[in-house]
Amino acid sequence: MPRFEAAFGRVLDALALAACALILGMTLMICADVFLRNVRIMPSMVGLAWSNEISEAMLFLITMLTAPWLLRQGQHIRVDILLRAVPKRLGWGFEWIADALGLVCCAVMAWYGARAALASFNAGSMSIKTLVTPEWWLLAALPLAFLALAIEMLFRMRRLYLGERAPRNDAVSTG
């Protein structure tokens, strides 16, 4: 199990690096769009008409690629003030409840996301904006991301079980 968890962590690291590459690409694309709107290199080219649409897709993909990595790093949004105010063992129990709820939510989102992507694929649905693309291309990222989140929730639960009977110390907002 530790080797699988380590390998999964490397996959999440690779996904986070891919998100970084998307951020770089999006930054360059937006700069090129602004530049081409203001400097007429070619009279017929006024910006990149498709840049807003691609930027929207990139923002969605960046979110999907980084969410499991952020969960692994303990950098997700977390309200821990109650966990610090109650006895350690009770806080540990609350961590279990939160992880179990997170696991269920991630599994449900993965299931429904997969159904939506498959339905879009089977229907041949297209996204028609500046670019015409199959709708399922973006929808497919959602179930994959939530599957990765569900797997990470299982690893979190395992680490919580093996660790001290107290709340986690990652992303702590109180002293």
What does this structure look like?
The chain is mostly helical and 175 residues long. Helix content is 73%, strand content 3%. It is built from six helices and two strands. Strands 1-2 form a two-stranded antiparallel ribbon. α1 packs antiparallel against α2 (51-73). The longest helix has 37 residues, at 2-38. The protein is elongated, with a radius of gyration of 21 Å. The two termini are 33 Å apart. The mean pLDDT is 92.
Topology of this structure?
Layout: H1 2-38, H2 51-73, H3 81-85, H4 88-123, E1 126-128, E2 132-134, H5 136-139, H6 141-162
Antiparallel strand pairs: 1-2
Helix pairs in contact: 1-2, 2-6, 4-6
* Principal-axis shape: elongated
Q: Given the structure, what is the number of helices? A: 6
Mean pLDDT: 92
Question: What Rg do the Cα atoms give?
Answer: 21 Å
| Strand order across the largest sheet | 1-2
**Describe the biggest sheet?**
2 strands, antiparallel
Per DSSP E runs of 2 or more residues, the count of β-strands stands at: 2
Task: Tell me the strand percentage band.
Answer: under 5%
Indicate the structural class: mainly alpha
Uncertain ranges: none
In short:
The protein is mainly α and 175 residues long. It contains six helices and two strands, in the order H-H-H-H-E-E-H-H.
Key features of this structure:
175 residues; 6 helices; elongated; 2 strands
